Amino acid sequence: MNAKITRRHTLAALALAATALSPFAAHAEDVVKVGVILPMTGPSASTGREIAAAIKLFQEQKGDKAGGKKVEVIIKDDTGVADITKRLAQELVVNDKAAVIAGFGLTPLALAAAPIATQAKVPAVVMAAGTAIITEASPYIVRTSFTLPQNTMPIAQWAVKNGIKKVVTLVSDYGPGIDAEKTFVATIKENGGQVLESLRSPLKNPEFAPFLQKAKDLKPDALFLFVPSGQGAALMKQVSERDFAKEGIKVIGTGDVTDDEQLNNMGDAVLGMITSHNYSADHDSPENKAYVAAFEKANPGLRPNFMSVGGYDGMALIYAALDKTKGDTDGTKLVEAMKGMSWTSPRGPISIDPETRDIIQNVYIRKVEKKNGQLYNVEFETMANIKDPFKAAKAAKK
Amino acid sequence: MIDTAIHATKGGESRAMAYFAERAKWRWPEFALWIGAFALAFLFPSRALLFNEVAILALFALSLDIVLGYAGIVSLGHGAFFGLGAYVAGLLAKAGAGAGLFSDPTFGLLISGIACAVVGYITSFLVLRGADLTRLMVTLGVALIFAELANRMAWLTGGADGLQGVMPGKILGIFEFDLYGRNAYLYSLTTLFLLFIVARKVINSPFGVSLRAIKGNALRAGAVGINVNRRLNGAYTIGAAYAGVAGALLAQTTAFVSLDVLDFHRSADVMLIVIFGGVGTLYGAIVGAAAFKMLYDLLAAATPQYWQFWLGLILVLLVLFVRGGVMGLVGGLYNRLTGKGGAA
Amino acid sequence: MLTVLFDGLAYGMLLFVLAVGLSVTLGLMNFINLAHGAFAMAGGYIAVVMMQRFGLSLFWGLPVAFLVTAAAGAFLERTLYVRLYDKPHLEQVMFTIGLVFMSVAGVDYFMGASPQIVNVPDALDGNIDIGDVSLNKYRLFVIAFCAILTIALQLGLSKTRFGSRLRAAVDDARVARGLGINVTTIFALTFAFGSGLAGLGGALGSAIFSLDPQFPLKFMIYFLVVIAVGGTTTITGPFFASILLGVADVAGKYYTPNIGGHKIQIGGFVIYTIMVLVLIFRPQGLFGRAQGK
Fold first, then answer.
1. CATH of domain A2-146+284-357
2. Residue C262 pLDDT greater than 80, yes or no
3. Paired strand residues for A100
4. How many angstroms separate the CA of residue A51 from the nearest CA in chain C?
5. Half-sphere exposure of A144 (CA within 13 A, CB side)
6. ipTM
7. What is the CATH number of domain A149-277+362-397?
């Protein structure tokens, strides 16, 4: 599908070059370039594919014009390696004169590109990475994905409300995992709960069994899980082996674990699992129904997940900002335009916090259920307009 | 070669000296290569960032070539020194915060190099014994332990988020790292060039010749009075220091260090590049790094999802039809061009 | 405690089936086949396709995975690998890494980048409780299956004519050749069989850890650890090495020793520390013979 994107762009570029020669041609300044850096290969490839597909879909649906200008998307593969992300960001800004850079599949990748955004005064739209601190790395970073504390706090509150006292946490040992762990542990402790053990599994590890066994042996009321998009299936496979339900241990987590992209393959073992997250492909709204239908039509066999929505909304934000500045591509003006922007996304109502440039959105508590023979995260409770708790706490201290 | 080594130690000095002088002589393609490399900064300023990456990779590959191609130590953990150098330079730049001696990039290079030399020397004792596979796995194991340590010591290294706030100062207090990457490239390339000259001198010195004697046959080299272990310690230490400087260059020119610098794929990639370029040729490391990176850039631009397939195919074909990697290919062409005949 | 041992055993057994082919081919032809993991991945994906596209159970996936990867191994050995035996080690490394890259991208092209999930047959789903210990049926099956396989391999090596020829060839290929043993054929068969075992291991393992196109790269290190620690001259060496590593890895993650008031997770260190220590004191591997090649 990506080959198609590039081919289309080559064609577009050729067409542009041809028309540039004629007196009626659009000027080169009438093109706004958006440089998207994603992991298209390597361990995080599925993140990149989802986002690339969503961006393509967005442009097919909304056309390629915003603020009176033609929007051209350039997708680059950073293979998930930070110094390549940084170089690509630099090249996109310097060589391609990209007005906006976007994408960023993992936290270190976003952080590596942050100085470029600051130095070049180019907005960087984070469509995937979820560690809270990212937006603080540069005044030009705007996020359309989510933050881990944002997605974690609601499930912790839900756990407290549902009489869960003793917990064990198991997260992947890297930025977002630690964010999730800290948020969950803090919320539980504030409410008089007890954290028996906080386990961290190496990011690149196929074997969760010992951690799960340990969690089981500690006999908590609930086990909280977080792993990044793409690892949920392996984790849930091993969770189902342990038969936590029989010991009366509830398995809960963030929606990353029951990632829509893989959920259907996880089997009935995940039925009934409770998670909190910002997006479910099952979200009940006309916008989402249309989105899911169009996405699945364009990408047979692939269900849109939260990563794709981050990409789709990122494009929506860029388009809206360009409309607002009437095509002015000055980075500072674009970021100003993005601040406070609010719209209805497939995931529900969202807005950009003018203070932190981070996303404010509803977080939903969901339960895995079977619908028409397919597994879905079915939302049953909404926590409205959640700001990133990490930055909110910081602001409160000041 | 071994004969020469003996002569060098036992008196036939004039002959040996003549031999070294002949070997050490610069040839015109070498001048062309370096002049071309510097010219690139001005001919294609828009690709300076890519060239910078190539220069750093070339230095890293050069460091492995000294260890692998000359000392014959198969290391799949060379990234340990690259990563260590990157963290040392990154932490120094962070401590300097844009001003003072600590933030001076050249000072950072020096300290990183020294730190890696020390660690390299200590770990070199681990790789003296055993066959290729053993050394491969010991070096790999050490590198993985390093990576895990960096992950655990998040208070120092920033853990999985990466080291934030790396702000290298001006180079020698004059040149600033610009957004276009030209100064970065010239800085990395100059470092590469200077260290290359040193490496070339070392390789053509009696020490270098004795290394090749050891690689050819360690038992025999020992029998003619070469202290095999000490030579290997030395070569490994030099290689470690070079790798540390390469890592430092990466940290300084990208103003960022993440755990990725210690990842297994760095060690594997650089080994692949040295083989790809041609083992034990010094230039193979540089040409290999350039060819590999350019190839990757071209393929990834053409097919961002499936470039790995074509890269793999090229590696496979290269092994099947060419001996000695890219340098084997180039050497053959050069000999044909200069009428020397015979494959290199 | 017992459960930890049990999990480690299952993990180690699986590692053994995955890696034994690599160990034997390395010992036999002194050929470094880093693409071994690609055969394991192929086996896993064959099982996935059989189950998802044709709705067959994993029990059918296992033999098919074995046969298809063995055939693929034989084909590649005859057409490609055979040209490389006299090349330097490093060129073999580059060649096989090239194959790994091609397989990674190829699988990605046909199957997508997302991890595939294999569902355990109903009969093996769930746990068996023995006293306090709750054992997963599938892991039990893996252990039993691999144990039988190991015994069969060991018997095959020691009792059959082919086995003794193979052992002779591993000991000294040149002398074996001189005695009229057709080393080339033995090697081709061994290679095919080893690849088949890797495929079988991949199919078995796919129900425990998820399968994605990065598989050959992810597991390359583990394979190398097994053969480095176990040595390449026997199959008992890699067997014990696999078990040791499996148990050590699992136990290392389970126990978080309390050092200075902090719980320290040692999981990330255990395997590699063991390996480095073993190799420092016994460079030929824990079970290797001192005068190896």
1. 3.40.50.2300
2. no
3. A34
4. 13
5. 32
6. 0.86
7. 3.40.50.2300
